[in-house]
Structures are given as structure tokens and as C-alpha cells.
Amino acid sequence: MKHPSHLLALLVCVLVFSGCGTYNRRGLDPLHARQIQQEVVPGKPSLPRALEDQILALNPEAVTARDVAEVLARAPAPQILLIHGGLASVIDEMVSFSEFLQGMGYPAVSLTNAGDGTYTFSCYESSEMIAGVVAWYYEQEGLRPMIVGHSQGGIQAIKVLHQLAGHFAPKIEVYNPLTWQTEQRNEIVDPLTGERRPVVGLKLPYVSSVGAGGLTRVLPNQWEMNFKLRTIPDSVEDFTGFCKKNDLLGGDYLGYGPANESEASGAAVVRNVWLPTGYDHGRIPDTKHLLRNQAMKDWINNYRASTEPVVYLKLDVAFAGDSRHILWAADVWYSIKQHWVLELQRLIRAQRLRKHDN
Question: Are 281 and 151 in contact (CB under 8 A)?
Fold first, then answer.
């Protein structure tokens, strides 16, 4: 058996020779950033009363393709932060998932980093910065962002939750994704109440991770998560952790046993979803190929996620074509649709209440 230091050296060599999946962020100047913000960032929606009524009538647990095309497509959507794994090669896999989401009806503007046109965040970027970006989007749009993380990006997604829970620092500064600079403040104006509130304590609607754990735990940037990775704090309402057996890079004990399953430290709803063993750890987010087959798209749109805390997924239908990773894509899409509706309903009700009170 290899010594842990040998494993660390091996992983470092892999990262060096394969290329780290990082970005050289170059922010816009403040004037240009304000112009882009007015043009691209949706802002807090002001929807026609009839459309609001249609959104309020939607069932979040049964959002259809028609609901997306005829109702949700006419409204803004929460920003989704996609966090890719450690190698440059996996960026394309997460971009593929972004293209899948767009093909299913999610707006591209809510998947893109407006400051530089990228679709993902790196697992090597600061979790405190990502938490500050989350707060910025919520203050601007009134819809709380969602996070989807893959491999080390899944670890980073959970680290962001611990940041928002105040487990690393008592204060987090708001971070502008257009300038890529802090705004020198640790509070936002809550768009639902109009009152000031700290970034720490903000609760996200939905976060998921896939393939988080395994050998990547020994990397220095993940050491502080070793005793926090499977514990989900109250800074998220709905968390899904995806894992699979025979996963050296993303599964503890080769992905076997409950050591790979997450649990809530408080009131968060936590689901653990086991994917088929044959899924390729590094390529799970590669899903845009599913858009080529209407039968697959229909199946994905009709998919209903189990509410059980531990689920073992198995594809029970045979498709003509490439159906790789369809179970992961369907489960994540179900939750994204669900919380897209819930966030809009939450904002509409809050806006109506404030109008009534005034």
C-alpha cells in the first residue's frame, strides 16, 4: 500500500502534467462593469400580474417541459454556479452540462459569468470569494443562486456552504463577479425585505456535489474539509450528494459504504444518490449529447426524484443512442426546475406582501 505522502506526490504530478483547471480572472473597470450589469444581469424582476399568477400556480414537484417553455422561459432564473474539478480537461465536461441545461430551457445568462464569459468556477478559487459572489447575485436579482460541483468542485461547493454558515470566518465580503474584486462590505440589502443583513447566514435553495472525496482529500487545498465534507450545514435548504462505487478519485474507501454519504447538521434536507458503477468519474457532467434524442429529453423532463435519504439509481429503460450520465442529469435537472419555481414564487409573494404593507 502506498504511503499517504506518495499518494500526495502522485496527485501533484498528475495536476502538474495534466494542467490545473484554473482561470486568470481579469475584471472589468468599474464603469464598464456598471454598463454590463445594466445590460446583462437580469435584476429583480417586475413581471406582469398574469405571469406571476401562472408561476404561483405551478407545482414545483412536477415541472413539465411545457411549464418551462411557456411560463418559466418568460421569467428570470437563479444564477447557477458550476464548480469544476481539478484538471483543465474537466472544464469542458462542466461546460457540456451548461449546454445541456440551456438545451433543456434554462437561460444562458443565468449560467454565464458575465464579467468574462466563462461558464464555471475552479475548485482552486477561493470558497470565500464564491460565497461573496453568491451574495452579490442574490442582492442584484432577488433569487438565491444554486451551486453544482463536480469532483474537487463538489468539495468546494460544500466548503462554500460552511463559509456561509460562518464556520471559517465570522464575516464574508460581497464579491463582484464583473470586477472580480471585493466590494469592501460584508452586508447586503436583502431584496425580499429591504433590510440590511450579513452575508454569513445566507441560505441557498439547492446545492449538489458529485464524486467529492477519495484521493483528492489529501491535496493541501482540501485539508480543512476533511472533517466537514460529509456534514451539510443549515446554509442550504436542499442538498444532494452523488457518489458511486469503484471511485478512487471521488469516493472514500473506493466509494464503498456510508462513509460516502452526507448528513445534515441541522434542518437541511439531504439526499444521497448512488450512481451506476460504470459512470466515469471525470466525465459525469458531460451531458450535452442527451439533447440529440427527443425520447431521452422527454424521459428527463418526466423524471421525478425520490425523497428518500439514500437512493440507488438504475436506468430502467433502453434508449437508442448514447444515454451516458442520464440519471445524474435527470436528477439534477429535476431539482433545478423545482427550485427555479420555488425561488420565483418566494420572490413574488415577498413583493406582493411589501406592496400590501405599503
Answer: yes
